[in-house]
Amino acid sequence: MSAPGAGDRQRAAPPRERSGTTPGQSARTHQQSAHALDRSSHLPLWVQLAAELRRRAACGDFDDQVDTEEQLTETYVVSRHTVRQALHALEEGGLLERRQGKGTYLRGPRFDQPLHGLYSLATTITGHGAREHSRVLALRRSRARAKAGALGLAPQAPLVYIERLRIAGDEPLALDRSWLPEELSAPLLGADLSSGSLYGVLESLCSVRVTGGRERIWPVNPAERDRELLELPRGLAAFAVERLALSGDRPVEWRESLVRGDRYSFSVEWPSGIGPALAQA
Q1: 77-102 exposure pattern, b = at least 16 Cβ within 10 A, e = fewer
Q2: Around 261, how many Cα atoms within 13 Å sit in the side-chain half-sphere?
Q3: What are all long-range contacts of 237-242, with beta carbons under 8 Å and residues at least 24 apart?
Q4: pTM of the model
Q5: Is residue 68 a contact partner of residue 13, using CB atoms and an 8 Å limit?
Q6: Which of 26, 178, 207, 246 has the highest count of CB atoms within 10 angstroms of its CB?
Q7: Is the same domain home to 87 and 208?
Q8: Cβ(125)–Cβ(132) under 8 Å?
Q9: Residue 151 and residue 139: Cα distance in Å, rounded?
Q10: Between the CA atoms of 73, 76, 78 and 81, what dihedral angle is there, to the nearest 10 degrees?
Q11: How far apart are CA 79 and CA 11, in angstroms?
Q12: Do both 74 and 117 map to the same domain?
């Protein structure tokens, strides 16, 4: 679809203003929005626009409803086709939903993960109605002293290393790096890991079933390469997750993950009657 002509631009609705803004302030805001997209970048404009809208949603710039296509076209000085590509990507990623005849709305800022036991990111994504798949960035034999130690192995024990970019819809959600004992997981070296749960493949190909484990979660500003892989806008943090997976009492995977903080949340429920410690909180 071609970019709107001059007549379309004249008919486009002006960008929405926050209460209390003056015409001069509105013009400056419009100019800043247009400059948010780098037209010299190798990234397509629709990718940049999707990242910018995701950033604004995370910062609370929208209420429930996102600006119309006309408003976004006018604000960012891009074609209607570019706007639609960006909105489609955000819809596929689970951030937006289009309501017939009503407009485009935030679906909810994040994929929510209850922390009540072992969970699967793949299941969480599909459970929220988004398409799940992975881009395998590395799948090879490796030796890593610290990771072997975390798995209770000798420092030079051979490992299988897997690096996957986990994608919800068309947008990255998480970056997983996993180390597994080669003696248990060698068949994974020839496996298709482009979708679904690693643990499902581990059980079907290696007869190793993950039965438990432990995790540690904290906020982090990702390194530049990781931020680019995740397409995480600057200024937004990620969750760092360390996991040790067990089969019975035996460690079978050490995993280090980065999960986008603007698209994911963790939740915990406290059952009633958990004891006097709650009253002291």
Answers
A1: bbbbebbebbbbbbbbbbbbeeeeee
A2: 18
A3: 237/261, 239/264, 239/266, 241/215, 241/216, 241/217, 242/215, 242/216
A4: 0.63
A5: yes
A6: 178
A7: no
A8: yes
A9: 18
A10: -50
A11: 14
A12: no
Q: Which own/partner contact pairs does 213-219 have at CB distance under 8 Å and 24+ positions apart?
A: 213/118, 213/243, 213/244, 213/245, 213/246, 213/253, 214/243, 214/244, 215/241, 215/242, 215/243, 215/244, 216/241, 216/242, 217/241, 217/266, 219/261
Are 125 and 251 contained in the same domain? yes
Residue with tokens 């013009």: 27
Would you give the end-to-end CA distance of the chain in angstroms? 58
Mapped onto helix, strand or coil, the DSSP state of residue 198 is helix
Q: Which among 180, 175, 176, 189 has a CA at the least distance from the CA of 144?
A: 180
Q: Are residues 134 and 254 in the same domain?
A: yes
Residue 272 lies in a domain: no
d(CA 39, CA 45): 7
- Within 8 A by CB and 6+ apart from 103, the residues are 65, 66, 68
pLDDT in tens, the chain (281 residues): 444 443 333 333 334 333 333 434 444 445 556 678 999 999 999 999 999 998 888 777 887 789 999 999 999 999 999 999 999 988 877 678 788 888 888 764 467 776 777 778 888 888 878 889 999 999 999 999 999 999 999 999 999 999 999 999 888 999 999 999 999 999 999 999 999 999 999 999 999 999 999 999 999 999 999 999 998 877 788 999 999 999 999 999 999 999 998 888 878 777 776 555 545 55
Domain, as residue range, for 44: 6-106
Helices (H), the chain: 6-11, 23-35, 45-58, 69-76, 80-92, 121-127, 145-150, 182-185, 198-206, 224-230
Q: How many domains does the chain have?
A: 2
